[in-house]
Amino acid sequence: MKSTVDDARFPELSFSSNWSPWEEVHAHTPEQNTDLIFPRDKLVEEGSNVTFCYNSGINQNISCYLDRELIHGEQLYLNIFTFKLNNVPFIREGGTNIYCAVNYTIKDGTVLFVSKVLEEPKDFSCETQDFKTLSCSWDPGVDTGLFFDGQPSQHYTLFESFSGKKKFCEHNNQCNWEISRDLQETYNFTLTAENYLRKRSVNTIFNLTHRVHPKAPDSIHFNNVGATNATMTWKMPALGNYSTLLCQIELHDKENMRQEHNVSIKVNGEFLFSELMPDTAYMVCIRCANAKHVWKWSKWVTRTLITAEAAPSKALDVWRKVKPEKGLHHVTLFWKPLSKFHANGKILFYNIVAKDLDKKSELKLQSIPAPANGTELTLDQGSYQIQVTANNSVGASPASEIVISGDSGNEEVEEQKINGTKDGFLISWKPLSEDRAGYVVDWCEHQRNLHCELQWKNVGPNTTSTVISSDAFRPGIRYNFRIYELSTEKIAYLVENKIGYTQELAPSDSPQVKAINVTSHSFTLSWKDYDTEAQRGFIQGYRVCLKSKATQCHLDSVAELLPDNSTCCEHAINNPKQKIFLVENLQPESFYEFFVSSFTSAGKSPIGTFTKVTTQDEHSHMLMHIILPMVLCVLLIAVMCYWKSQWVKEKCYPDIPDPYKSSILSLIKSKESPHLRIMNVKDCTPDTIEVVNKSEGTKTQFIGIEKPLTESEFPKPANLYLLPAQDFCVPGPCISFVNHTYSESACDSGSCAHTPVPDTAPPCHLELLASPDNLLNTLEKTHTDSLGEIPAGKISLNYVSQLASPMSGDKDSLLIHSPVPVLCSEYKMQMAVPSCLDSPVLSENGSLSSMTLLGQDKHYH
Amino acid sequence: MDLRAGDSWGMLACLCTVLWHLPAVPALNRTGDPGPGPSIQKTYDLTRYLEHQLRSLAGTYLNYLGPPFNEPDFNPPRLGAETLPRATVNLEVWRSLNDKLRLTQNYEAYSHLLCYLRGLNRQAATAELRHSLAHFCTSLQGLLGSIAGVMAALGYPLPQPLPGIEPTWAPGPAHSDFLQKMDDFWLLKELQTWLWRSAKDFNRLKKKMQPPAAAVTLHLEAHGF
Fold it and tell me: Which stretch is the leader sequence (chain B) (predicted)?
């Protein structure tokens, strides 16, 4: 046992007495079934050594545990055990359970509460924001509180030695102290932390004015905000006029801090910002501290200041593209939007003024609403000065001028190839004139777009080279750079035109090739330029790949292995302008395949589909040379014949004049001559034909056919039927003439008819002659039958007969067969005809073919 | 007036109890008397819910006590927990209980257990544990009200409070914290056993209170005509 004096008011008097001497006490032996463990619910600090004593009573076989671990003790007596625990750790707020059991049945237990070591408060300090209250705060460290009846959390006491006041703190990390009205200047605070086991104190002494921590400024306002200046006002709360404050003001734009100012105030503050940017949002931050002794700054307070707009401060960067067409200039103007720094506000529209420099009076005004970056104008081919201004709500920017001359857009400059790199293109040029305002290099950034996204770069007048670089440049895309020289009159003259690639690639496509002039031993390949987009580099030449059955390539080609493991003979064309190639030394009627690929410095275009060609037959051209003229000649002759047929007919087969239609009739009628009349054949007495009987075997020859008859051939009688036209059959007679001279039973002309004709085939029974075949058969049969009536070989006859029907006026009508039997007239007169008319009448076998006559439009008998 | 968290929970529990009893007030009961069946069913459901809730709470609290109290096979002697109402009963005795006695035993048991539980709440040091215990106490208060409702529906009087047991009564400080921990252990264990038994009790009552099929038919016919 010991005693301690501890009074916070007199900490210097605190002391403890020495421990009293040990006293021995005899404890009662527990009752028979009562166990006892001691001490009960012991509270110790972490790291302490603890000894437990257990009186087991009559139980001998006991086991004791710390939480769930068996602990071994020392047996002092028969029923008394001690358990020593060294350096006990903190395990949980609920305490460590120590219990003893017999045969797993708990007999008694206790809780050992192990407290964490109480720490000294850290960062103890006091300050005031209003000279009314001192706020003291600290870091309490670990909480030493334990559950149940172990130990509550440590508590804190604040003691001020000058005033002798003491305060129990409600919170474990801060405490408020009322400042007396007389404004005690110096304070000496002692903070004491205490739990059941320990007490820890810290001390601080300070001057009140050195511990002023102002609250954040409030009532912040911006007044008279202009384009470049503004006034800020604010107030400092709660401090009154006790001290002077220093306020720190910072002005930030989006990127970084632009201005920093320090202002001394009492309560109300005011500050004028100047040199601000128009139409710009600024962040204004302000904080304050005691000016005499800066203990702590107040929290930053942030407000946004937006300045007013001003007129744009810079002229637009303008460029143009001129396209002459039909006497007009289509001018496309481009401009780059002003940076925020120069726009000084939101650009609302762009004004374009076109002034005719020739007439000097005409103005064309356009207003393009923002956010446009270009427009199109159509001007005549005169010279125009174009002015472009950007306008915001306050005013317009300085005008940007550009002049379109009459020659603009018509310049032609040869393209020059340049090599680019991944970093861009180095472009150099030669100046056109000495007097110049500068240069402009323009190009299309995205060539694939239909509308070129024109880019340009302004270069100073004394510079003749520049590097054009852009993140938009891509390998395999051809870029076209045009360099213009700007005169002092702002007229642009095209100086040079350069094309190039940042990196050439192999062509993505091959030319479209046609095979022409295919012969038996050669054919010609022809192709044209193709899309530059597919070229992806400067074409340096072509490769003609020819596949054939031949295993060997010609000397001017090399064997090339294709992706499909086949080979072809590759001919190299190293002239990119050559777009025709003669493939020769080929085999006739052979099958060839070819493919033409282009190549750039980066490689060849990919192999595509081969085109197939078969060479011609070797003789086919000869056939053409012969057959074609022959066909033409035959056609010519046929045309000539047709054209001259009338003439030939008139010459060779003139129409037999019809006496009834002769012009002489009119003459007769007009003269009424009684002596002039037409002779009627009926009135004529047929000539007497002399029939010469010849001995058998004598050859008889027809005059007309001049063909000798063999002895076995019987001359056939000229038994002809003239078939009347249908019109004439009723009531007109069918004309038939029979050479009765042949008939052995000659009859007179008036009564006899059909004598040589058998009864079964009456001459006028025209039904049987309905078809030419029937007619021919009938005629031949009749003819044969007639022959039967004449003794063969006894009669030879030379005669020619001619018939002119008295009724026949229509030659065509003879072709019309009438089914109605009609009366027949007989022809009894015969006369000689020119020998030239014989041949058509007779067939080859000597028979007289009526079919020949019937089959023609005209009848000649 | 110093309002503490425990008092707020108590007021909430009272409000719940009042609301629970509202359907039993004749002036408000305009829908006709459906009998004790729905109340028994609700009581049964609440019992099952509390079983689930206690499983979570007991896990946290026993860890807070530390080993061996949080070990699954821990079975200490009851010692100071002899005053706790025992849920275990002989099966034949349980079967022979009449409805009134069955309900009365439940009511009395939860009344006692609720008082002990509130004492437990005062000892809990962590805010989280205090919150869980307060929530469970409110639910248990609701169960007590629910049993009272069933008893009222069946026409049974509520048992009188035992002399000397106030609503906020808690067991006095044990002679050691270790024994206190054992009492806490038995309180949770007995509560768990009572909830299990109550589920059986109310299930039995529920089946018993189901109207016979003929009566239902007659009821429907009466409505039909």
Answer: 1-27
